[in-house]
Amino acid sequence: MSRIGRLPIRIPSGVTVRQEEHAIEIQGPRGTERHALPPKIGVTVADGLIRVAREDDARQTRALHGLTRKLLSNSVTGLSQGFTQVLEIVGVGYRADVRKNAIYLTLGYSHPILYQLPPGVTAKVDRQTVVTLEGNNRHVLGEVAAQLRALRPPEPYKGKGVKYSTERIRRKAGKAAGSAGS
User: Fold this and answer.
1) Of 121, 125, 164, 182, which one has the fewest beta carbons inside 10 Å?
2) Quick check: 30 and 78 in contact, CB under 8 A?
3) What is the C-alpha to C-alpha distance for residues 7 and 50, in angstroms, rounded to an integer?
4) Is 180 helix (H, G, I), strand (E, B) or coil?
5) What's the Rg (C-alpha) of the chain?
């Protein structure tokens, strides 16, 4: 049995789960999401818990068991609390500014970069160098954070660029430090 798939999902107050034939709809204070269930995966909703079960032990079904449970769990968490991702901008003159649903980034290029945020994702900028992204869908939020980081990934010599707040940059010694020992 899948260690992830067998865990029940606790439904917090304010979240309602409606089960259909081959889908499940989750409604919370932050919105609504609908998930189509893969074949041979069943879901039961009872006593404030969601349980995911599989019909057989085929390799594909086992793989989908844990995945389905985690996707449903992320939806319940996202619609009740939401998710956040924090990015830090490091570098002289590097900064960000939010206007409506777009982020204007100055990252050392000859022009500012305009990044249009997808629906469901909001951004706040603190001190011009810390961008906090918020959203209900963990997958979309991760994609947006990865795309912003890819605009100027952190480099290992000075550490300049866009990085996740939890990311540690492995620093390298420059040319001068390498030849000083000879």
Assistant:
1) 182
2) yes
3) 9
4) coil
5) 22
pLDDT digits (tens, 9 = 90+) for 92-149: 889 999 998 999 999 888 999 999 999 989 999 998 889 999 999 999 999 999 999 9
The pTM for the full model equals 0.82
Residue with tokens 């550490």: 159
> For residue 159, what are the CA distances in angstroms to 39, 142, 156?
47, 22, 5
**78 near 14, Cβ under 8 Å?**
no
Domains delineated in the chain: 9-80 (3.90.930.12), 83-164 (3.90.930.12)
For tokens 């009872």, the residue is 46
